[in-house]
Amino acid sequence: MPKRILVLLLLIGACSTPRTWAQSPCSTTSLTSHVICTIPQLYGPAGLSNGGALAPVGDHQGHYESDFQQSLSAVNGAIASELSFLPLSSPSSGLSFVFDKSLGVFVASDASFGPILSERAGTIGRNRFAVGVSYEYFNFNSVDGIGLKNFPVVFLHSDNCTDSPTTCNPTPPTTVINCSVNNGLTSSTGDKRNKGKCGFVRDYIVTQNRIDLKLHQTTIYASFGLTNRIDIAVAIPIVDVAMRASSAATMVPNSMSGLHVFANPDAATCTASVPPPGSPCYSDFFSSARSSTGIGDITIRGKAELIRGEHSGVSAAVDVRAPSGDELNFQGTGTWGTRIFGIWSYSGRFSPHVNAGYEWNGKSILAGDIFSGTKASLPNQFFYSAGVEAAVVKRLTLTFDLVGQRIIDGQKLVRSDATVLGPCDTPALPPFSTACQNPGPAAFVPSVTGVTSSYNMTNAAAGFRFNPFSRLLITANALFKLDEGGMRANVVPLIGVSYTFR
């Protein structure tokens, strides 16, 4: 029966196929229920544009989407990376068996019950079968050292042509008047690209943001000893995720044109005339929330013991992660992943162990451009762990681990200072020919932005395994972050129970 169950689970993993996307999974016309759309639709489906979060003013089209996509959407990339790195309770650690010469049979060893988040070299034993379940809780509160409860983002106006299609493309050699936030560029007509009729690009949006992301992961796992030196195991996570994003946004109307006001609270009043500075027309609060529950990415592990000594051993293992989870609801990565690693361990009252390996990941929309629906590769990683188990009494083992990862070319959020254009000294009102002259100097406003960079994630783990009777094991563990790289929770608790059959 155990063999049939494992074969069935292998088939489930093999049949998991990543989804393909020809366009964005987040609609620009209506709200979408996918958790991944929580941030992209924070300001509504149409985003920071006229007809969306901004009220239509005449025929002007205000657009702030490009800065929004670069800044807050990088959070989605950080979450996607974290999904492929979530720690799992080791499916093949637990009770080990040694040969009792006096009895002539294998008996459960009381030296150590094995590590919790790492592997030991020993195997479960030929035809032995173990099942278990574990629960982990992630309350993410920072990304790359930036607190998720209150962080600033500044949005600048997108470059835009100020005239109608006819007058915007006059007969050469006259060039197009391209309104741009870049300072000092002049068109052939003599207009500064951010003065006069282009003064509206001086308006920018300051936001204070909060993201709450909570994930409950219940993992069902099983392992089976094919031989005395080869184990195969499977882990099936059930993921419950809840995400909420909120943003307090304030328009800074440097152009004094009235072209950029929020649609709420009263679009008619806000667009009837130019609101004065400090008007409620320049402020709004936005929120977005999603949740979902489902099966995550199934991981299948094979482990072979290469060297077996009297007290120590060396093994090699391979994990294959199938894209069985729904990536649009942050239940999976949306792509295959493979990790190969080596294991050394020593068995005794104090049992040290070391794991080290490398993980390769495929392409997923989570690492790509969600707005266009294009995929990119999830970052690969080098990972390692080292620790010790201490058998303090016959039925109790304490465990300690240092767990580290080096993420290769992952998406990060970094603190930055956005350069914003100074205010006009005269209102940029129609016909915009001589308005917005002698603007003030540029300023620097705190913000965050997304970059691609390698970084470290280091955690410490402490826990115990208790054998109350027979072959039942109870596990408890806590994971503590030691640095700031990636999407992180301060503490990740884990509890579990497993049973080993003869």
CATH architecture: Beta Barrel
How many distinct domains? 1
What structural class is derived from the secondary structure elements?
A: mainly beta
Secondary structure: helix percent: under 10%
Order of helices and strands: HHHEEEEEEEHEEEHEEEEEEEEEEEEE
Q: Give the spatial strand order of the biggest sheet.
A: 3-9-10-12-13-14-15-18-19-20-21-23
Name the CATH superfamily assignment.
Answer: monomeric porin ompg
**Which fold does the CATH topology refer to?**
Porin
Query: CATH first level: which class?
Result: Mainly Beta
What distance lies between the first and last C-alpha atoms, to the nearest angstrom? 13 Å
Number of strands: 23
Question: Which tags fit this structure?
Answer:
mainly beta; twelve-stranded antiparallel beta barrel; Porin; 502 residues; 23 strands
Overview of the structural elements:
- The protein has 502 residues and is mainly beta.
- The chain has a single domain (2-157, 203-501), classed as Porin.
- It has 5 helices and 23 strands.
- The strands form 5 sheets. Strands 3-9-10-12-13-14-15-18-19-20-21-23 form a 12-stranded antiparallel barrel. A 3-stranded antiparallel β-sheet has the order 5-4-22.
- Strand 16 (363-369) and strand 17 form a beta hairpin.
- The protein is elongated.
- The two termini are 13 Å apart.
- The model is unreliable at 4-11 and 164-174 (pLDDT under 50).
